Amino acid sequence: MLSLIISIIALGFIIFFHELGHFLLAKACGVGVVEFSLGMGPRLLTLVRGNTRYSLKALPFGGSCMMVGEDPEMTGEEEGETSSGHIELDGRVYRKESSFLEKPAWKRFLIIAAGPVFNFILAFLLSLVITQQAGVDRPVILSVEEGMPAAQTEIQPGDTVLALNGEKITVYRDIQMFLLMHQQEIAEGMPVSITYAHEDGTKRTETILPAYAEDTGSYRMGLVFSGSYQPVTGAGELLRYSAYNVEFCIRSTVSSLELLFTGRVHKDDVMGPVRMVAVMDDTVETASQYGLWSMAMSLMNLALLISASLGAMNLLPIPALDGGQLLFILIEMICRRPLPREWIGRINMAGMLFLLGLMFLILFNDISFMLR
């Protein structure tokens, strides 16, 4: 039960950190914030300070940042405008120039972009801790299987893979991602060009045609990797690999969407918030058997992936997401005039209905999967 509570709070904090980005940039750009809340649902505690209501809500899941003028139809600002031109909301009065829509396009762009950027910042901070403690999974070959295609080349144990078919390889996970993304092409006979470096620093390139292995039911090159993590050396390597971990999570998210929309993954492979919490709960519960630090590291690994993925998903140019708003602002900056609010309202409503429908399907899929 404790691990479930920790998992829910961790997922909620990731979403809260996203909203914190919007909040801090809104304040910095002079936009009035009506309410900044931790959690969702009915308010448990609330106070008003600096013309902003700060609330602690019942459900420890996420947060919200309601800005003046962000959505006039939702906040009722048009009806709440006073005779002096001020805006009245939630019993408080705001200057019209503090409205989100009154700010220059570049300021609005920064405020909206701050949410995903904060997710990436959180992911990087988590990655720093993880990389410092666990190290990095270098793509070093452990052994070459006899009778397999790689055995016919000059590749040796201890060699480091640098690229596959021209795609740069930095960590062992890159190799796994390459094989996942190209499994269909490999099964159809696609050769794999491997660029690698010997331990003495010399580089070579070999072309291998993966062979079907009856024992595993898959196509293999015959290269075995340990997949173990090795310590990083120096601050420069720590920063580089920490940043790369975030980049890898973002690319994984984009690649997963590609696999989903091309029908190469089953719907059961898609996780919504219910299964995310369940996976985090299982991971924390299992890791807790090996000590508190092991549990914390496992939770941070999942939080890193979710935070980076949330930032990437929010940048998709879909109405009602941050990416959709950024697209509207970019069009405004290029055309030097905003799109009609009626158009934006209708498009956002359509986007919201689409997202609500998608969330319902994902939630239904989560519950169906867990009830099996």
How would you characterize the overall build of this protein?
This protein has 11 helices and 12 strands. β3 (87-89) and β4 (92-94) form a beta hairpin. The strands form 5 sheets. A 4-stranded antiparallel sheet has the order 7-6-8-9, with helices on one face. The radius of gyration is 25 Å and the shape is elongated. The model is unreliable at 74-79 (pLDDT under 50). It is 51% helix and 19% strand. The protein has helices at residues 2-28, 72-75, 77-80, 105-134, 172-181, 183-187, 234-261, 273-287, 292-314, 322-335, 341-370, and strands spanning 33-49, 52-67, 87-89, 92-94, 141-144, 160-164, 167-168, 192-197, 203-208, 211-213, 218-220, 223-225.
Task: Please tag this protein with its features.
single chain, about 375 residues, alpha+beta, Pdz3 Domain, four-stranded antiparallel beta sheet, two-stranded antiparallel sheet, 11 helices, 12 strands, about 20% strand, elongated
Q: Strand arrangement, largest sheet?
A: 7-6-8-9
From the spread of the alpha carbons, the general shape counts as: elongated
- Whole-number total of structural domains: 3
Give the N-to-C terminal Cα separation. Answer: 21 Å
What is the beta-strand fraction?
Answer: 15-25%
Tell me the number of strands: 12
Report the mean per-residue pLDDT as an integer: 84
Helix % is 40-55%
Order of helices and strands: HEEHHEEHEEEHHEEEEEHHHHH
Give the helix/strand class: alpha+beta
Rounded to an integer, what's the Rg over CA atoms?
25 Å
> In this structure, how is the largest beta sheet organized?
4 strands, antiparallel
Count up the helices.
Answer: 11
In the predicted model, the low-confidence regions spanning at least 5 consecutive residues are 74-79
